[in-house]
Amino acid sequence: MMHFIRPLFLSILLLTIALAADAQVTSQYTDLVDMKCKTLELNEDEGGSYKGECRGIAGYKLYVTEGDLRQSVDIVDPNGGVSELQFWNHFSAFSYLGPRAEWRIKNKKPIALIVRLNVSEDPEDSSKTTSYLIVAKITSAETCITDIIRPSRTQNIQARQAADRSAASPCKVK
Asked: pTM of the entire structure?
């Protein structure tokens, strides 16, 4: 009888480890720089505007948008639905995106997106910026900003933790 218990226990243990590994949250990245994205719209008149399409993951893609020296990201789902994050609703100052976005993935599906936004908050010196991490949840019900993480030594860790629990977080409305 003991000969059957050990293999059964080992099989259950391996299955538990495999399921736990599959349910872990991991990261993949999308480049947001204009050289890596396809230009969809470009207007260089009066402050200019830009819209670029960047390759995402699992059928998702990102639109990088810019107008009046403010940048944002839109998340495009596999069915073509667009969720505009409109970072400028949270920051009125000039802003620009970091070079890449971080997708948080669970069971091979994106559950959240983290994007760095550098904001010129000093009206006397626009070169002085504050670097925020913006967290957006991605669920079947809604895609929206849930957290804005201020600069700190643990900013990246805080953003990943917020992203990983974002499905239960309310949307930040402004």
From this structure: 0.86
